[in-house]
Amino acid sequence: MNILAIETATPGCAMAVRTSEGVELELVLGDERHHTEALTPGIRDLLYKVKISAASIDRVVVDRGPGLYTGLRVGIATALGFSVASGAELVGVTSLEVLAHGAFNSGVRGTLVSVVDGRRGEVFIQIFSLDASVLALSDPKVALPREVALEWNQRGDVVTFTGDGAARYADEFAGVTHGLIFNQQVPSPLAALALGALRAPQVAIVPLYLREADAVANFTTRQPPS
Amino acid sequence: MNWRRYCASAEDTQAAGQEFARVLRPGDVILLSGQLGNGKTTFAQGVAKGLGVRERVTSPTFTMVRQHECVNDLGISMLHHADVYRVESLVEVRELALGELVEDGAVALVEWGEIASSVFGRDVMNVDFVLEEDEGRTLVVSGALTLDRQEPLNQWASQ
Ligand SMILES: Nc1ncnc2c1ncn2[C@@H]1O[C@H](COP(=O)(O)OP(=O)(O)OP(=O)(O)O)[C@@H](O)[C@H]1O
Ligand SMILES: [Mg+2]
Fold first, then answer.
1. Which residues make up the environment of ion ligand 2, defined by Cβ < 5 Å?
2. Which of B50, B111, B122 is nearest to B80 (CA)?
3. Is 50 exceeded by the pLDDT of residue A214?
4. Is the predicted ipTM greater than 0.90, yes or no?
5. What is the CATH number of domain B3-153?
């Protein structure tokens, strides 16, 4: 099975491919937020290097967030394009779990908090246990960096923070007594691919925004024209 | 903490906007709130002037958002002026991706922005337009972004 992975949840634009012969290759482009221009040519180059055609992609694994909205839009639309054009299967993974697996693959063990930059002073976080395998200990949620740091200071446990949110708010997270930072700005597309290779294909990929829940209620505060 | 400035006329509201440009930094998202006709667009026109926008700035009520190029020494090269009064759902507001677009040396002014504040997150400034009995307006500035703008805001409020 030829598998393509698309990673656009952060300012980096990244992709990976695994051919049915087991050849793996990834391409991680800079953190310039130019997903629209960079993604498709990047995929073309990647496929050229492993000598398979776009039509022969059997499955596309795509990061569905949470993360950079403009990036997710491009990534998911591109994945859908493959599925429409050549019937490729689709699998969604989350940025937070891909970060956890990336850290795990690099040898990080113990408690890990994946931290994705949510913009405007907020981060998306999820807690994992990295032991024999990667286990989620909480659901993804929106949080303030300072509050996350405070919480872990109070817990006093050894913990590793990773992701572009951990880097952006390094000041906060470096202050946690038993806190470490594992530098990982872009979720690894190869980790996403490995994760997505094991899952059942999905009919639809829905972006994970995390900022929806309390949304609609606010509209009732809008006063009708007087 | 908040900053207030009373504006007796539309000209005053515009001047308040023009001087507010000096409070702004690239990456800012400003939510303008207040009842219909309380001066949000008038204020935005002033901000545009203060940011060195050449073209005419009109209400984006029907287009949802307009982009205006800016020429100034504040490092702000683009003004995104939005009005989300007509949106039906937050999805539409999110589609505008304003919080991310401002990272390219821009600022965003969002009329009726507070109805969609969950899309924008914590680091925003709010400007509230309150209609007074004499038909003047009091502008009230608050929000997490004000924390490191106290100096220019003091100056702005004392005019
Ligand atoms: N301080 C003021 N005193 C008196 N009139 C004012 C003042 N500021 C603005 N106005 C007037 O109020 C009217 C409505 O202003 P404006 O269009 O800016 O409101 P708005 O808040 O953008 O409305 P909407 O909610 O429809 O977008 C205009 O005629 C404007 O000149
Ligand atoms: Mg208006």
1. B 40-41, 59, 111
2. B111
3. no
4. no
5. 3.40.50.300
CB B89 within 8 A of CB B64: no
The per-residue pLDDT for range B121-144, each reduced to its tens digit, is 889 999 999 999 999 999 999 999
Best of B90, B107, B110 to disrupt the A interface (most A CBs within 10 Å) is: B90
Distances (CA, A) of A70 to A57, A67, A159, B74, B99: 25, 9, 31, 26, 10
Domain at A3-95+186-215: CATH code: 3.30.420.40
**Residue matched to tokens 């935005």:** B44
Tell me what the mean pLDDT of segment A182-190 comes to: 97
Range with the poorest average pLDDT among A209-213, B96-100, B143-147: A209-213
Whether A224 shows a pLDDT value over 70: the answer reads: no
Cα A111 to Cα A129: distance, rounded to the nearest angstrom: 5
Give Cα separations from A37 to A43, A77, A78 (angstroms).
11, 13, 12
Q: Would you state the pLDDT for residue A217?
A: 43
Find the B101 Cα to ligand 1 centroid distance in Å.
Answer: 27
**Cβ neighbours of B58 (radius 10 Å):** 13
- The residues, any chain, with a CB within 8 Å of residue B70's CB and separated by 6 or more, are B48, B51, B52, B53, B76, B77, B78, B79
Q: What does the angle CA A156 – CA A159 – CA A162 come to, to the nearest 5 degrees?
A: 145
| Domain map (residue ranges) of chain A | 3-95+186-215, 96-182
Contact B99 A120 (CB under 8 A): yes
For residue A226, pLDDT over 50 is answered with no
List the single residue in B90, B112, B122 with the smallest CB-CB distance to A120: B122
List, as ranges, residues 117-136 from B with C-beta within 8 Å of A: 117-124
How large a percentage of chain B has pLDDT more than 70? 100
Query: Among the atoms of ligand 1, which is closest to the Cα of residue B44?
Result: 18
CATH class of the structural domain A96-182 = alpha beta
- The domain locations on chain B are 3-153
The model's pTM: 0.84
Q: Is B138 touching ligand 1 by the criterion CB < 6 Å?
A: no
A36-52 in b/e form (b: 16+ CB < 10 A) is eebbeebbeebbeeeeb
